[in-house]
Amino acid sequence: MIIEAGQSKFQIDLNRHLRENNENPALTHLICEISEASKYIINSIRTGDLGVAGTSNLYGEEQLALDVLSDRILKKRLIHSGVVGKIASEEASDVLTIVDNAEHLYSVAYDPLDGSSLVDVNLAVGTIVSIFKGDNIFQTGRKQVAAMYILYGPRTTLIYSTGNGVHEFSLNQLMEYTLVQENIQMNTKANIYSPGGLRNKYTKGVAEYVRHLEEKGVKLRYSGGFVPDFNQVLLKGKGIFFYPHLKGAPNGKLRLLFELNPMAFLIEQAGGAASNGKMPILDIVPKKIDQREPIFIGCKEDVEKAEEYVATED
Ligand code: AFP
Asked: Is the model's pLDDT at 56 over the cut of 90?
């Protein structure tokens, strides 16, 4: 990245960062359009109706008005971007085709407001986006050309990667995303862990893994929001998040297309790892839009250790 004399790198906005890293102009436009949509989502969170929308998504979860509103905001931006051929939203049951035979365009899978049930208790939530080239949204996560998330917390921050490192931006008072740090890298070992799911539903291997972490003095940090919990693991660089397979729920809770693929892309770009307990998340071939997978994501050594404990269950 070229920094003009006297120019602090921290005044670099998202668009300029993408351009100066010679990203594809259409992909740059798409990522910037998503960042623009996030500003309207912020507004709906800060001022929106927290009431229930009355509809439900394909998981049978009642859609909060904010889920529906955020989905509408993002979908509209993607449809009018001119560079998107297919859309899959965590809030919809089918893939939406905008342009037929769109090999030259992008396909986008997204969770418009992950953790929306936390908004009414004022906890942090986020938007998660996965981007593929072409019109096949059921490719393995390793084929993503970009992944990003926006975290609506005390600060609004945006993290993206196009396969050339992981970079963090913060929204300033002028509503511009300006660079905070580049090429975020994970450490090898965790000192925090973020365990999802009911503990009394943990299988033997996972329960023993938790005991192993606690005996190492690893501290528990869990908010119930995947985006803030993952962001803490990534930015502290010393953590592991897991929402494992459970007794009665062998695939865990989190969705492969909308939550796990983008975060797995980011963590591997940052030198970490993401596994379903048996194989890398990014190598899983999606079979259906609402596919769930167990997830262990964070420091490479801790993910490998989790796989060892899970293997004892076979
Ligand atoms: P919602 O989007 O339905 O609020 O679920 C959020 C989430 O999928 C993810 O953000 C959290 O990591 C996970 O649920 C928390 O699940 P538990 O409430 O079972 O811990």
From this structure: no
What confidence category does residue 65 fall into, taking pLDDT thresholds of 50, 70 and 90? confident
Look at residue 4 and tell me whether its pLDDT is greater than 70.
no
The mean pLDDT value for 189-211 works out to 97
CATH architecture of 192-311: 3-Layer(aba) Sandwich (3.40)
DSSP-based three-state secondary structure for 298: strand
Ligand 1 atom closest to Cα of residue 114: 2
Distance 115 CA to ligand 1 centre (A): 6
Domain extent listing, the chain? 9-181, 192-311
Q: Whose CA is nearest to atom 15 of ligand 1?
A: 224
State how far the alpha carbon of 308 is from the alpha carbons of 19, 196, 230, 282, 298, in Å: 42, 19, 22, 19, 15
Fold assignment, 9-181? Fructose-1,6-Bisphosphatase; Chain A, domain 1 (3.30.540)
Give the separation between CA 184 and CA 199, rounded to whole angstroms: 31
Question: Which residue's CA lies nearest to atom 6 of ligand 1?
Answer: 115
pLDDT tens per residue across span 283-314? 999 999 999 999 999 999 999 999 999 999 98
